[in-house]
Amino acid sequence: MNTMKIQNYTSQVPASRSITEIESMLVGIGATGISKGYIDGKIRTLQFQVTIDQFGSHSFLIPAKAEIVREILVKGKKRIQKRAEKGLDEQAERTAWRIVRDWVESQCAMIQLKQADAMEVFMPYMLIKGQTLYHKLRETKFKLLGDGK
Length: 149
What we know:
By secondary structure, the chain is an alpha+beta fold. 45% of the residues lie in helices and 21% in strands.
């Protein structure tokens, strides 16, 4: 993939600002709790709770996969000098969180405009016994979904 096609690949917005904006949007749709998951001192996930009408309160986990963004950015560069590696890590983090922020903004707009509810748009990220619904379904090769007919 060409890095030119990656949304926000040159973002200079600090990851912390994108995360704060995401938290604000989630509160705007009724999140009752938000926590951060860290790996190596960096925020890698946001977990939040939302009460959805008759379905009650549910937790969701949204990742920002900076390490994958970094791999793609590296593929777009011919050579990376040692001193540029740290800058690349920071760019990948900024890019990953900005992409998540843009996605959450779109989902929250759908919820606020009553085009969807939070369960509908965030369901793949719903936590069930410490794992997202998407990952639980993937473990079963999506057999729970049936054959699609």
